[in-house]
Amino acid sequence: MIGTDSAQQRAATPMARCTALLILLLASSASHAAEPGSAEAEAALAAMGMERAVVTSGPDAMEILVRHDTVRRPVLVMVPGSACMPALMLVEGNDGFGNISSVMPPSAASQREMGVHLALLERRNLSSFRHVYSKEETAQLASLDMHVCTERNGAVTLSQRRDDVLAQLAYLRRQPWAGPILLVGVSEGTDVATAVAAEHSSNVHALLLIVGAGMSQFFDFVHQARAAGDNASATQVLVTLDAFLSGNPPADYQGHGPARWQSFAIAQTNLDSLMGSTAPVFIVHGSADTSVPIASVDALVVEVMRRQPARALHYMVVDGGGHSLWSVLADPPARIYPPFVRWALEPPQGRTFSNVGVGSAP
Prior knowledge:
This is Alpha/beta hydrolase family protein. 36% of the residues lie in helices and 21% in strands.
């Protein structure tokens, strides 16, 4: 990195963002750890009504966790964020074992009420419940060596992640029970979801972008520094961006190599991708997000409205919400997914806006 990053910039790095999104799904009374690939691990999936689908094997293996019946229905497809972690993880706690998710899936009951199937997309060569995390590992999930993103472990660039998701969607579309694809991107997953829609718009019936639909990460860094009154750091971000554009990027910038920044923050942004599709888009963001400032999302919404006035758009602001919407909502999936599914299947028209928070109605 050129110069010294500010505290605001460090809080916004992809790995810091992912830590805020980890959620406890349920507690287990298991008295011992499941071994990788054991029947007990598969039983943990079955207890959640999930099954593992292998999309590809070999050096770039990809899986999907699905919860479905035999009736053809819309599929709520979840694209994970920046964390190179499995969608579901079995972790040791003080009272046994519990499940942590790196995405934000709805409960089985909520899924049934919405009338959709569920698909959690795994990142490249990652697989849920293949490892049991000790208490020590659970306390530092984001910094574990096994969660470092590489080309073989989760993939690094936007094009790699986009192509992986396209392969996973192709698998889903071949299933007789799979109806229209409702594609959900969480945090960095929003970049991937919009890139997928831009590449093959026919793949996506509607987009849901949660806590990640900003203009670009360099915009975010500059805005955060200015908001903190740190003009020197804001200038340093611009100097760093200029280094990338001039072909002399730093070998490491906020924990990531130049390939990641070039693909996600320079060559293509959410706004660029959105201009390549017309799929209805439902955007959810917290007004107090310190990782992706809401000013960045406001700017994107304004530009989408201005450039694509015929596009169906809904913008939901979670009052006081941070990058983890659990900070103000008791059950974010229950507050977000049902209105999105209803909106997406109406079909949606025009541009609408809503605010939700602790005191607002579901």
